[in-house]
Amino acid sequence: MSFKTLLTYLWKLPLCGLAFFVSVMFGGMAATGVGLPTPSLPTGTDSATLAVYLLLARLVLALTLAVVSRRLRGGFVARWLSLSCLTWVVYAVNTYLEASIFTTFLAASPYLVVMNFVPSFVCGAAVALLFPPESAGQSFVSRAETYFARHTTGQWACQSSC
Asked: What is the pTM of this model?
């Protein structure tokens, strides 16, 4: 990694992490809007300390997504949706499933799954925009067209049903 690339990461990563962190408010409004009860913090938890830890976790999340984004091919929309869905499933849905199976902690709340939907898509958009692919390569649509052009519609139908 060159020094110039490192310098650009130093301002882009906090911006992506901040986009996730700030958009959590909008996700919380959406979760409250659909009528999900807001989970309370565990006793002894300091909300300011928790906010600092969550901001640091968002920076690690942004770094991880940046690495993935640089290697994804395709246009902005395909990369944005891929990164957003990956973030939401790995971050929100996985946390909900693990917490509901292994703990009685408040992370096993549907509120948090819905709340993290909005920030996942905002952060995915920021990362897809700020971290373009390393090489242009072939787009997702052109690769899909090449793949499906190998056979006629009849051949595809016969392969799946024969």
From this structure: 0.76
Average pLDDT score over residue span 94-98: 84
Crossing angle of helices 3-33 and 117-130, in 10° steps, is: 160
Angle, alpha carbons 27-104-113 (nearest 5°): 20
How far is 133 from 144, CA to CA, in rounded Å?
18
Type of residue at 116: N
Q: Give the integer Cα–Cα distance in Å for 76 and 90.
A: 21
State the Cα–Cα distance between residues 132 and 143, nearest whole angstrom. 18
pLDDT class for 110, splitting at 50, 70, 90? confident
Domain-wise residue ranges, the chain: 3-37+56-161
In a 3-state reduction of DSSP, which class is residue 139? coil
Mean pLDDT of the chain: 85
Longest dimension (CA), the chain: 65
Question: Is the separation of the CB atoms in 7 and 71 below 8 Å?
Answer: no
Distance, in Å, from the CA atom of 72 to the CA atom of 6, rounded to the nearest integer, reads 19
pLDDT for 141-162, tens place per residue? 777 788 788 878 777 777 756 5
